[in-house]
Amino acid sequence: MAQVPTKRNRVGRNLVRLPLILATVAFFSLTACFPAISQPHRYSSSPTERIKAEILDQLNAERHARGLPLLVWNPNLAGMAQNWSQHMADSGSFSHRDLSGAFKLSPFNTTLSAMGENILRGPASLRSGATTTAFMKSSGHRHNILAPGFDSVGIGVVCKGGKIYVTHNFGRATWNHASTASSAPQDPIKSSSSSGTKC
């Protein structure tokens, strides 16, 4: 059965475009350095690495089914996504990071012209396919996943305290002038709620 956003399985969306940016001191001090994270492997012994690899494949399957270009793995966005998933798991919070400050940080300030973020917190029993299905059933999150202008993604996954925390950070390269607006339809959703790895 498909997961829907509820109090126990919540999703959030955030989109920031470069011209509307205001830097914040709190964000800058929290995110001065993100370690770059290499692309996850589907056959990793780590469940969280397998979940990340499966989510990347699922996001690209949704885009491919609608004739959109595939997302490429961005190690810097992945570091930022992993950092935020860990923050939410450690603090027990569920909120978006202030993406506007990320544009002030290298390498984002020279390589990206737009960013978006999806977040999810749910029970650790959720499989990777269920997380993607939940995002796809929410118009704001689907918008980020299917935005033609987003060309890269980083995914962070943390399993802690019986919960899974997932962050997608999307980016649009400075040379890419495609819109981050999306009118792609929800259906058919390619991901299956019962497929994939769980924590």
Q: From the alpha carbons, calculate the radius of gyration and give it in angstroms.
A: 15 Å
Helicity range:
25-40%
| Contiguous runs where pLDDT drops below 50 for at least 5 residues | 1-10, 15-32
Question: What's the average pLDDT?
Answer: 80
Quick one: how many beta strands?
5
Q: What amount of the residues lies in strands?
A: 15-25%
Q: Can you list the strand order of the major beta sheet?
A: 1-3-5-4-2
How far is the first residue's CA from the last residue's CA?
A: 18 Å
Name the structural class. alpha+beta
User: Largest sheet, described in full?
Assistant: 5 strands, mixed
Q: How many helical elements?
A: 6
What sort of overall outline do the alpha carbons produce when their principal axes are compared?
globular
Encode the helix/strand succession as letters: EHHEHHEHHEE
Q: Brief overview, please?
A:
With 199 residues, this protein is of the alpha+beta class. Helix content is 32%, strand content 21%.
Describe it.
With about 200 residues, this protein is α+β, with helices and mostly antiparallel strands. Helix content is about 30%, strand content about 20%. The protein is built from six helices and five strands, in the order E-H-H-E-H-H-E-H-H-E-E. It has a five-stranded mixed beta sheet. Helix 2 packs parallel to helix 5 (about 130-135).
